[in-house]
Amino acid sequence: ASGAVSGTVTNPSCFAISASGTLGVCGWADSTLMNGYTQFSMSPMTMGMLVGLNTPNNQLMMLMDKNRTWMVQQTIDINEPDYLGWTPNAEQLFVNSSASGVVQLYNMDVNVFNLAQTFTLTDAGAVVVTPNSLTAFVCQTPLNQITLFNNSSNVWASGATIAINSPTDVFALSNTQVFATVASGFAYINEANQVWSVGASGALSYTPTSITQDEFGILYVAGSSSTTGYLTAIASGVVLGGSSWAGSADDLLWIQGQLCVTDSTNSLVRIFGLINGQFTQMNTAPAPMGSPVPIVVTDSGESIFVGGSTMSYQYQFAQPFTLQATQTSTASLPPARSAPAARAASPASRPTPPAPAPAATPGPISPIAALAAPRATPARSAPAAPAASPARPDWPTAAGPAATPRPTRPTVAPAEPPARPARSVPAAPAASPARPA
Question: Is residue 198 pLDDT above 50, yes or no?
Fold first, then answer.
């Protein structure tokens, strides 16, 4: 016999059946976050905390790692959020909306976000905060400028603006230097005597939109031009090399000598290695549908999340340059069977023991718990007493004349052993005659 398994078991791998006949099926499926995300950001201080933006649903979500299961802990409704930026001390979070022209600042209070400040800022875009958590840079791409925000005891105020050609992203290198991607190039922004100004710059054949850095200080930028995706390495203002492909480049990250770049045009994650000074694409992995497709690595380095419009994928490196979908165990149980109808009572001539009380119907339990729980052995019911045999005609009965007794073998009592004769007590010796005096 065969059939389909109803439920969420994508790849059945084992089954178990209970004493009552309930069949449970277990298996596995690729792990996903059941929400679409347009941007991710890991907390720089709190282990196992991830925030993501779901722009289509106008939501900010905070997720926590619970025994390697990422669960949504808080959801905040925000009008068209686009960009995230933590303060490095993890006490505050910038959430910007370019469509609504708003910058919102949230305080982190015991793993709960609370809105602290709201600023009106036209075309508020990508944001970054310096390592000392004192200065924030907010891109305003259509306005060709970056607006500064200054922090005093976790209270922020907007400050000066920096004129720069269509800034798309910013990356803090130190408390006094920031790297920015601009239209067809990049630029360094430096601080001197508390005044920020644009310094060295460079040209590219495309407009980069994402930045990351490796442990050696080399910067990597990615972006798209028409139907081509690009990846470039930059060190101290010098272009070291790059790569391109048919498609797009949305977001990127560096992890253990590997560069992962999302390509929403082809729904791929492209994995590059730097071989003999040249970028070489070593492998790819599927990416969810959506544009753009963000990517982030967890603080433990165990998982990589790739966002999409309706759901997000969770990966891990199975080996160098090979991303493998993280697998989650699943189970499916059919509805509980109804208890069988009680049997009709037996005739009075054949008494039967009382029927046991029906067992209580168990409450709803998770499929995993149902299969993991030890199997209870059903208690055996006591056997019914045998029915009395009908009276036989040759046995005396309470009513009517006695029947003729059956001849029986005479019972002979066992002979008793002969009694031992009692021992006679010896007679006392006769008295001696008196001796003459």
Answer: yes
